């Protein structure tokens, strides 16, 4: 693993976690973290108008991405009941305050029965795991989902790292936010690397690039 990030540590200081989650919400809004997931989910919502689905966000943080997914689903006529999994207690509390039913658990060992949730998403979580746990994480998401799995993460590139560093100061990011953002991008994936992990985790190699240094994989479980 490259470096360390605040959100690697379940015992991280709650106040620092609160600041980090606020900055992540901002970055997801500006740099397309939410849009990448919403766009990947859109094909699955087509033809499902009038249905009620469950959506599980693994590593949900403050819950902003599943809330964006619920708004998009509503426009397609689909009602989403939101669930979250977090391993950091203060982040789990933030997600509950945002309206998600959130369980404190490890995302690489999901305590859900097979095919128990309609849609499972994970955004910017995979890069926190070494390869063996990343494979188990992918397999676990696919095991739990009935209709769709979406994994979104960061595309590693020198241009993205430079752009993030230059934007961090005008955005007023904290020292932790500046550090962790760079580490996250250094830990990111090329499409080929994510496809390799997907196959190792028993999933199809469907990774694609999305705008603003994102790489996304979306598939229907077998």
Characterization of this structure:
By secondary structure, the protein is an alpha/beta fold. The protein has a single domain (6-219), classed as Rossmann fold (3-Layer(aba) Sandwich), CATH 3.40.50.150. It is 45% helix and 20% strand. A seven-stranded mixed sheet has the order 3-2-1-4-5-7-6, sandwiched between helices. α2 (33-45) runs parallel beside α3 and α6 (158-168) runs antiparallel to α7 (175-186). It is globular. The mean pLDDT is 96.
**What's the CATH first level?**
Alpha Beta
The largest sheet has its strands arranged as 3-2-1-4-5-7-6
Count of DSSP strands: 7
Classify the secondary structure makeup into a structural class.
alpha/beta
Reported by name, the CATH topology is Rossmann fold
Helical stretch tally: 8
Report the mean per-residue pLDDT as an integer: 96
Helix proportion range:
40-55%
Taking the alpha carbons of the first and last residues, their distance comes to 31 Å
How many domain modules? Answer: 1
The coarse silhouette is globular
Low-confidence stretches: none
CATH architecture title:
3-Layer(aba) Sandwich
Q: What is the H/E order?
A: HHEHEHEEHEHHHEE
Annotated CATH homologous superfamily: Vaccinia Virus protein VP39
Largest sheet: 7 strands, mixed
The share of residues in extended strands comes to 15-25%
């Amino acid at each position: 693993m490259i470096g360390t990030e605040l959100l690697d540590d379940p015992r991280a200081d709650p106040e620092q976690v609160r600041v980090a989650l606020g900055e992540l919400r901002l970055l997801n809004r500006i740099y397309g973290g939410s849009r990448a997931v919403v766009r990947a989910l859109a094909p699955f919502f087509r033809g499902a108008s009038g249905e009620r689905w469950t959506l599980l966000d693994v590593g949900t943080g403050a819950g902003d991405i599943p809330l964006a997914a619920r708004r998009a689903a509503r426009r397609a006529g689909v009602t989403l009941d939101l669930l979250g999994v977090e391993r950091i207690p203060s982040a789990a509390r933030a997600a509950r305050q945002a309206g998600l039913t959130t369980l404190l658990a490890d995302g690489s060992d999901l305590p859900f029965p097979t095919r128990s949730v309609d849609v499972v998403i994970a955004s910017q979580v995979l890069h926190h795991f070494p390869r063996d746990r990343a494979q188990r994480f992918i397999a676990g998401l696919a095991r739990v989902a009935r209709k769709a799995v979406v994994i979104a993460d960061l595309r590693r590139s020198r241009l993205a790292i430079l752009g993030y560093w230059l934007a961090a100061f005008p955005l007023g990011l904290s020292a932790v936010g500046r550090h962790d953002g760079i580490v996250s991008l250094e830990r990111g994936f090329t499409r080929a690397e994510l496809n390799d992990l997907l196959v190792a985790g028993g999933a199809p190699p469907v990774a694609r690039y999305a705008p603003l240094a994102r790489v996304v994989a979306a598939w229907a479980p077998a």
